[in-house]
């Protein structure tokens, strides 16, 4: 049986480093892309636009990691009933 993913752990990982929760969930490409986007947003804070996009992408990463973990768990539960 595939392992269950903790939605809380996924969200906390993305809280600290955007994209880390996605990597925990097995979505490696999405996680790496979020990390790269946040690095770019960090650099863009020098011209102020990063201050707008940095928190938006950060919140997206947290919510997406949480929801993805719940979807993975629901799919695993349906498959092995």
TrEMBL record:
The chain crosses the membrane at residues 31-61. The keyword Transmembrane helix applies. The keyword Membrane applies. Keywords: Membrane, Transmembrane, Transmembrane helix. It comes from the Bacteria. This is TM2 domain-containing protein.
């Amino acid at each position: 049986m595939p392992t269950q993913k903790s939605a809380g752990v996924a969200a906390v990982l993305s809280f600290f480093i955007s994209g880390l929760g996605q990597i925990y969930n097995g979505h490696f490409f999405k996680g790496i892309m979020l990390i790269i986007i946040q690095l770019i947003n960090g650099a863009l804070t020098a011209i102020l636009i990063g201050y707008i996009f940095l928190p938006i992408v950060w919140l997206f990463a947290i919510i997406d990691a949480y929801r993805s973990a719940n979807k993975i768990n629901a799919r695993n539960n349906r498959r092995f009933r």
